[in-house]
Amino acid sequence: MTIKDQLIMGIETSCDETAVAIVKNGREILANVVASQIESHKRFGGVVPEIASRHHVEQMTMVLEEALAQAKVDVKELDAIAVTEGPGLVGALLIGVNAAKALAFANNIPLVGVHHIAGHIYANRLVAEMEFPLLSLVVSGGHTELVYMKEHGHFEVIGETRDDAAGEAYDKVARTLNLPYPGGPHIDRLAHEGKATIDLPRAWLEEGSYDFSFSGLKSAVINVVHNAQQRGEKIVPEELAASFQESVIDVLVTKTVKAVKEYEVKQVLLAGGVAANKGLRETLSTTFADMDVEIIIPPLSLCTDNAAMIAAAGSVLFEKGQRADLTLNGNPGLEITIHNESSR
Amino acid sequence: MKVLSIDTSNYVLGIGLLDGETVLGEYISNIKKNHSVRVMPAIQTLMDECGVKPGDLSKIVVAEGPGSYTGVRIGVTIAKTLAWTLKIPLTGVSSLEVAAASAGRYFDGYVSPFFDARRGQIYTGLYKFENQKLLVEKEDQLVLSVDWVKMLNEMDHKVLFTSNDLKLHEQVIKDGLGDKAIFAEITEHNPRPAELALLGRDKEPVDLHTFVPNYIRLAEAEANWLKAQENNK
Ligand SMILES: [Zn+2]
Hints:
CATH architecture of the largest domain in chain B: 2-Layer Sandwich
Radius of gyration of chain A: 20 Å
Helix content of chain A: 40-55%
Bound molecules: zinc ion
Order of helices and strands of chain B: EEEHEHEHEEEHEHEHH
Strand content of chain A: 15-25%
Oligomer: heterodimer
CATH superfamily of the largest domain in chain A: ATPase, nucleotide binding domain
Number of helices of chain A: 11
CATH architecture of the largest domain in chain A: 2-Layer Sandwich
Number of helices of chain B: 7
Shape of chain B: globular
Largest sheet of chain B: 5 strands, mixed
Distance between the termini of chain B: 54 Å
Structural class of chain B: alpha/beta
CATH class of the largest domain in chain A: Alpha Beta
Structural class of chain A: alpha/beta
C-alpha cells in the first residue's frame, strides 16, 4: 500500500508580499508564488499599511490561481490550507485569512493558522530535515529572536530584542546614510567594500541573557554621522556600514554560539529576511565550521517572506492535529507558542 | 439560480440568499463587532439553515463600498475567493445603492442614502426609482454634508434620507432642506442583503481577478505623494 502524499497550501499576506505556495509532504515545493509590492512602497520609503492591504485584494485570487497552476494541483486535492494569522499588519493579514477561510469553506478543506515566525523557521525544512533539539536565529525587519525547539511545533523563545529588531536598525542606519529603501541590502553591499574602522558599541546586556538591543547601536551611528558633519569631516559610508554590520553580526553570532553550547542543540537554523544578509551568512558559516553542530541557511528566496514556509510549518501543525475554524482572525500581535495536540 | 450576497462595508453585516424569485434567507446585524471573525460563520450558518451547499451557488454579489476600507476589503476578498474557487460569476454593487433600494423602493422622489465619513463628511449618492428600476442621479461621492444639502436644495425636490448615522447630520439636513427632507424610519436604515442579491443578480459580472473595492478615496499616503509630485513639477 502506498501512503498518499500530503498536499498543503500556504497563504501569506502579513506585510507587503502576497504569497501562495503548495508544498508536498512538508518538504517539497510544488509552487511558491510571491507577488511583491516593493516597487509600490519604495516611493514612500517604507511599507504603507493601507496601500499594502489594497494590493493584497488586487493580487489574491491571481496568486492563488498561479500557484495551483504551477503545482498542477486541484484545490480539491489539498489536505489543508495553512495561513499566516499573525504577527504582521492587521489589514494585510485579514486578506490572507479571509481568502483562506472562504477557500476552506467552499471546498470543505481543513484550515490551519500559522505563526509567521514559525513559518520563517520552517523555511529551513524545505532545505534539510530538522534534527532536534535545534536552535533558530530569527532576524527580520520586525524580529530578532533565538528560538529553541525540542520537537516539531514546539517553539520556546529564549532571547528576543528589547527594542529595535536588527532589520529595523539596518533600515534606520540606511536612512541616515541616505540609502534607498529597503536599506538592508545596501548596507550589506557597502560593508563588503569597506573596513570596520569605527568603534561602535555592542549591547551584551546582563550576564547570561540571550536578549538583544539595537537602539543604542543605531543612536551611536547617528551620533558618529552628526559629529562628523559638525566638524566638517566626511564619513566614508563603506567604513560606517562595515563597522555597523560588524557590531550587529558580532552580537548575533556570539549569543547564538553561547546558546548552542548551553542547550546542546544539533542544528542551528537561520531564518527571516535579514538571513539574506551576506555578512551574517558568511560569519555563521565560518563560526560553525569547526563545531559539532549543523548550520542550515536557506536560499535567499526562502529567507524573505513567502508562503512555502507557511505551508511547511502548516504541514507539521496539521499532522499534530491543529485546526482553525471559520472564526480565525488576523492577529497582529500574535505570540509564538508551544503548539501541541491539546491546544486549540 | 442561487445568489449569495455579502455586505461588510459598514457596521451592518449582511448575508443574503436568493433562489430565483424567492428570498431564502437573510442575516443582518448592526453592531460594532469584528466582521473578520463573523462573516464566514454567518455565511455558513445561513447556507446550512437554508440547505444550500457552496456548489449550489450560481452567483456571488458583494457590496463594493464605499464604507470602511477594512470592512469592504473583507467582504470583497471573501466574495472574490468564493466566486473564483466555485467558478461562478461575481458582481459588485454600490453599498449606497443597496441602502437606497432598501428604504426607497416606493418613494416618489430622490433617495439619498449616506454613511458618515467623519469631519462633517458623508459618503452619499443620489438615487431614484422609476418603473421599478433604480436610477443613479448623482454618482457616489465623498462630500461635506453641508455642501451636499445645499446642492440638493437647488434641485428643489423631495429627498428621502436613510442612514444609520442619520443623527449625526440630521440638523444640517433640516436646516438646509426644511420640508423637502424626509427621513426614513429606523427599521429601513440597514442595507438589506436580499436587496443586494436582487440588484446584483441582474447586473453584469465583473472581471473577477481585477475587481477591487470602490474606496472613493485614495489612500492618504498616495494622495500626499501625488500632491508632492505636483509641487515638484
Ligand atoms: Zn517575515
